[in-house]
Amino acid sequence: MPTDVHLADATAGTLSAMATFYEATRSAMRDPRTKISNAWVAPTKLTARKRPNLIPVRDNLVRRHLGLEKARDYRIDWQVMRHLANDEGVNDQLRIAVAAARDASASRGQQFEPDTSSLRLLDVALWERARVES
């Protein structure tokens, strides 16, 4: 699976490789003591950590906010996040938020430069918005 591809630029082949990686991670983390193990939060966070430009963090709060809770399919979540990652309006708002944080830190004599991917910024922005609106 590529390490230098962003979700916004992911091809069908990349999405397929992401799914293989995610499913393998999920399978490896499955609890063998239970008959039905559908834990997805920890594998999602681990795979997102390993590919921060490519794999979004799935979260119930954000999924509900985006109207995805009934779909129950990470591939649909990824497609929605891919669409948002390609949306110029969303990207403009993320740039504005980063600039505001940079300005606020500069006014306190500090330097702020996010050391994370634009996808992680989108994850955080969506989670914060969902948290405030819930």
Describe this structure in words.
The chain is about 60% helix and about 0% strand. The chain is an all-alpha fold and about 130 residues long. It has helices at about 10-30, 40-50, 60-65, 75-85, 90-105, 120-134. It has one domain.
Summarize the topology:
Elements: H1 12-29, H2 41-50, H3 60-65, H4 74-86, H5 88-107, H6 118-133
Key attributes of the depicted protein:
single chain, about 130 residues
Number of domains: 1
Low-pLDDT residue intervals, each spanning 5 or more residues: none
User: What Rg do the Cα atoms give?
Assistant: 16 Å
Helix content: 55-70%
* Count of DSSP H/I helices: 6
Compact summary:
With 134 residues, the protein is mainly α. It is 62% helix and 0% strand.
